[in-house]
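User: hey, got a sec? need F-box domain-containing protein folded
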Amino acid sequence: MVLSTWRSGIPKRISYFSLPDLPAEVLGLIANYMTEADIRSLRLVSQHVCYALEYRALSTLTLDWSTSSCGRVHTFPVEKVQAYTRMGSTPGTNHVRHLTIRNICMDLKLCDSPFDKLLRLPDYYDHEYMAKREVMRKRLFQSLVENLFMGDVLQNNVRMLTWHLGCKTHSFGSRTDCTTTFHWICKLLSYREKPLECLTIVVESEASTERLQNLGKYRFPASKSVIFKALDTYKQPVCRLGLPPLTDPVHWIQNAANQRGLEVVVDIDLVYDRNLFAKLFPQNEGASRTKTTHHVTRYHRLNINLMPHTGFILEPHVFGHFRFLQTLSFSTTPRDGYLPPLPPNSFDSFWRQIRHEKIFVKNLTYPTPAISEAFIAYLASYPTPTLKVLRLEDHMFRLLHLRWTSESTREPFLSKALPAISLGLEELHIQMYKENHQWCHTASPTSLSPFLQCTSLRRLTISLDLLSMRDPKPQSHINHFIQTSFQNHPCLEHVLVIALVNRAWYDEGFIEHSVLLKPKDKAR
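Assistant: Yep! Here you go:
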């Protein structure tokens, strides 16, 4: 680390501090911006750093309850759970604040189990051997989990619980299927004397939601706030099975929030279906925009996957649910490698309505071919500096027979939308993989000058037309061009260039090249 004092542009004094010499408080602040793996590596620097970051490195405990790939053996971290349920067995018991559990599948009818080495199993030739073995395994499993959640060691320390529900197929007649386990653990958590600060439930597979129906009869865990993340859960349109079971856990959490006054945050990734939206976003809650009760459901992240020929129509009351939205993204699912064209300006009514409701997100992802005047008008109405990340993506469409036709939108975007969002914008990604397209810039400095007004920009993605270049290795030319164009930019650190090149050199017709800009001297 370098500390310098300047007078009349001349450095007066420069002092160097090595990492082990930093105070423990400063090291703790640095650790707040690092991943768990980086923190573990940083602790190896010195004994001082190791002790300073001990509370951060041991504050998160992850337990993976998963069935192995062979299908007849399941894993469970028996020794790890035992260590964290016995006082003084590990220093981590004093620091754990965030407990993460992956999966809840405990198929105790399988041949091999990590519980067996702690049990005195009945004689193998006993005609009730398998039934007795499953009962003994279940009792041990429940005692371990009960000590984990309700024991004296972690009960008062754990403040946050993240639960990934990735359920799998169970043996026929299993007493520990994921539905039973889920019900039992929810009941166990509801008995906590000190509620959790935050409970995060992550549904990661479609199989999980199918087994989590009729949740209204289940006890809700004792928690002050709930975050529900349904990520990549529903990839097919609603056709034969009616509404997807995803609505059951959402309504289960919403009902608990209304009864207990919880704050609920929902991140959801779903395929657009009009009936699904009508059930997930009912009119009675979202109709009033003036409702400010603390237990209202807050949708922070929404990814809408559109199927071909479905159109996109939202009832006006649905927008009342989106007033806390922070991340909004759109994607389109191809059919048989082909993406049929959507009706012209099919999103215009959505952008006009969301602009009327004054809903401005911080992170926005939108298909580049679908940009229209209504979308540009929405961006132009942004209050500064609200928008932080804007992604105009084309990677999902580059290998498809894309036939979305749109008027010339590049110039209106650069002249109207970009000035409105430029002050707060930190990431801007404009992808285009089509030759001779309006969003593909020429290799001249003037074509990139509009991006210089984004003074807070740190990461940028652009497309360059290099078809006329005969050099089979244009990387050096790209480096020089980007360094020259953005040499005076105060914050830009990384530029990803999608260069459209001659297919004689590259079969795909493009290359992706990253340029790291030279760090600016900010010590003045």
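Quick note: Residues 82 and 168 are 25 Å apart (CA to CA). Let me know if you need anything else on F-box domain-containing protein.
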